[in-house]
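Progress against Task 2.4 (sequence-to-structure conversion) is shown through the following example record, which the project officer requested during the mid-term review.
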Amino acid sequence: QLQLVESGGGLVQPGGSLRLSCAPSGFSLGSYAIGWFRQAPGKAREGVSCVNSGGGTNYADSVKGRFTISRDNAKNTVYLQMNNLKPEDTATYYCAAGGTATVQAMCAMGSYRPFNMDHWGKGTTVTVSS
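Structure tokens generated for the chain above:
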């Protein structure tokens, strides 16, 4: 089964930074749209950012100007640079891959949802607290 592996989570103070990484197990990310999602305790999973295979990106309003998504196809890895972290960013962060043309377009437009994605990681926890 195709899976993704997230890393880079941890405990950080408000205003701090973390960089999350998403790497696949057994396949190439190059032709996929990759989305970052997060889920806080008691809340629904929400989309944070997405990058499609053409480099088109989208960000949730809550993270615009603070988070940056990027992909390095040579390293077969997608990153989420998170700056100026806030306590409300505390959540488990998941990356997911979607391979259809529809998902590619939805990724860039910001209309992607968890059920659109084909492959998932198990998540990495980010805690923002003083």
